[in-house]
């Protein structure tokens, strides 16, 4: 009992309670703060709010960059915020050198999933109506085409009016998702994941420095994560609606052609785009649905395995991890290093220079392993490029 009390005290810190309160109030009054009212009426296009969000996010990013430059110029101590975390770029992650491999397959799956979850599910719902699938995407909830676990989780109070068979299907499909897919959903299937990765790639393409999060910053995200999880599961019981503050609803329904009032979710999406521009997978670090699925990681078939003998403690995996999971690097005994935060993106394996030190497995079958050859092949190309650049610079200097 005392253990449970201590655990609850750890979760319900004053910060969590205050954030919960503020977001609850905002959610309850969200109806009066309609962000894009024209989304729900007959005028205008469903896509218009998304374009406005995009425009406001770009303005926000430009403002942040300007502010950062000013802060760093006036206070050199803040210079660390301008510097990007040192990153190794093996295995063809340098622009123009991407080789066909696990990461390319991941991008392909993300793209296919994006279209399947938006248009495929819409088509399925309109054709077969009222079926429940173990999937997590918004358009299916408009007009109740297909029921989804995410929507039911955000409206747990609706379980009261459901029949036993409906409850069984909801729980069964949720359990199936956790066991078969786990947070593979976040790394490969979620439309929000693709949007964030595209935002990150855009920043890299523009050669703008991102923000490096240290352990302290990651730990500061914890109360926010728990707050959102509590609101996600509990808001419906006090008359609120988590969908009103969820950024995901701003994208998929609009792209599928559904008009929805976005309330506070429009603002949330702007924050997510700006955040993921500077910090890779920013929203995944606080996503309540992702974390809820992650909490069931012990029964998930997807796992990250580590060979502690092969590991040379270089720390490249930690540097590459968008979720800041330090145990992947510090673990010295356990073979299984899967955690609730791991989104199965495979970045740590891609950047690990030691043969088989890290691997991703499904049901015990290791299908993606760290490889020195892949790591070195990327570096050899980088090395040649670097030598060419040095020669060019020396030539220019001597002239
Ligand atoms: S531990 Fe590896 S697979 Fe998991 S989130 Fe971090 S980089 Fe991705
Ligand atoms: S698992 Fe690989 S990348 Fe991580 S510390 Fe060990 S050798 Fe380095």
Question: Could you describe the 3D structure shown?
Answer:
The protein is built from 16 helices and 5 strands. The model is unreliable at 83-96 (pLDDT under 50). Strand 4 and strand 5 form a beta hairpin. It has 2 domains: 2-76 and 100-294, no CATH class; 301-375, Alpha-Beta Plaits (2-Layer Sandwich), CATH 3.30.70. Helix content is 53%, strand content 5%. It is mostly helical and 399 residues long. A 3-stranded antiparallel β-sheet has the order 3-4-5. Strands 1-2 form a two-stranded parallel ribbon. The termini are far apart. One iron/sulfur cluster (SF4) is lined by residues 311-317, 329, 352, 354, 357-358, 370. The chain crosses the membrane at residues 12-38, 44-67, 105-124, 167-190, 226-250, 256-278. It comes from Acetobacterium wieringae. This is 4Fe-4S binding protein.
Question: Over the alpha carbons, how many angstroms does the gyration radius reach?
Answer: 22 Å
Number of helices: 16
Mean pLDDT rating = 80
Strand order of the largest sheet: 3-4-5
Question: Poorly predicted ranges (pLDDT <50, ≥5 residues)?
Answer: 83-96
Number of strands: 5
Approximate helicity band: 40-55%
Q: What characteristic shape results from the CA principal axes?
A: globular
Distance between the termini: 77 Å
Total domain count: 2
Small molecules held by this entry: iron/sulfur cluster
Describe the sheet with the most strands.
3 strands, antiparallel
β-strand amount: 5-15%
* H-E order: HHHHEEHHHHHHHHEHHHEEH
Quickly give the structural class.
mainly alpha
Pfam families: Fer4_10, Fer4_5
GO molecular function: 4 iron, 4 sulfur cluster binding; metal ion binding
Protein name: 4Fe-4S binding protein
Keywords: 4Fe-4S, Electron transport, Iron, Iron-sulfur, Membrane, Metal-binding, Transmembrane, Transmembrane helix, Transport
């Amino acid at each position: 009992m005392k253990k449970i009390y201590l655990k609850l005290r750890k979760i319900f810190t004053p910060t969590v309670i205050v954030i919960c309160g503020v977001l609850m109030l905002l959610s309850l009054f969200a109806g009066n703060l309609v962000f894009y009212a024209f989304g729900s009426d007959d005028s205008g296009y469903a896509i218009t709010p998304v374009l406005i969000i995009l425009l406001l996010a770009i303005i926000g990013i430009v403002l942040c960059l300007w502010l950062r430059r000013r802060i760093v110029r006036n206070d050199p101590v803040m210079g660390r915020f301008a510097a990007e975390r040192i990153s190794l770029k093996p295995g063809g992650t340098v622009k123009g050198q991407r080789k066909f491999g696990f990461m390319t397959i991941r991008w392909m799956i993300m793209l296919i999933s994006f279209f399947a979850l938006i248009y495929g599910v819409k088509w399925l719902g309109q054709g077969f109506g009222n079926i429940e699938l173990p999937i997590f995407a918004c358009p299916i909830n408009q007009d109740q085409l297909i029921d989804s676990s995410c929507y039911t989780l955000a409206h747990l109070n609706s379980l009261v009016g459901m029949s036993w068979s409906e409850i069984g299907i909801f729980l069964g499909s949720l359990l199936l998702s956790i066991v078969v897919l786990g947070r593979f959903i976040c790394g490969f299937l979620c439309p929000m994941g693709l949007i964030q990765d595209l935002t990150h790639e855009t920043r890299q393409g523009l050669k703008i420095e991102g923000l490096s999060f240290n352990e302290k910053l990651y730990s500061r995200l914890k109360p926010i994560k728990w707050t959102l999880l509590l609101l996600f599961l509990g808001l419906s019981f006090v008359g609120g609606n988590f969908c009103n503050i969820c950024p995901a609803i701003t994208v998929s329904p609009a792209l599928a052609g559904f008009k929805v009032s976005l309330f506070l979710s429009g603002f949330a999406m702007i924050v997510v785009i700006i955040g993921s521009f500077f910090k890779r997978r920013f929203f995944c670090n606080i996503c309540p649905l992702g974390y809820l699925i992650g909490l069931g990681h012990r029964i998930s078939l997807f796992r990250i395995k580590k060979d502690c003998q092969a590991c040379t403690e270089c720390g490249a995996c930690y540097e590459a991890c968008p979720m800041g999971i330090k145990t992947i690097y510090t673990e010295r005994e356990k073979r299984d290093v899967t955690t609730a935060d791991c989104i199965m993106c495979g970045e740590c394996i891609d950047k690990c220079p030691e043969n088989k030190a890290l691997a991703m497995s499904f049901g015990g079958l290791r299908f993606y392993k760290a490889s020195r050859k892949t790591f070195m092949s990327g570096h050899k190309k980088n090395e040649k490029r670097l030598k060419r650049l040095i020669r060019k610079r020396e030539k220019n200097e001597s002239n």
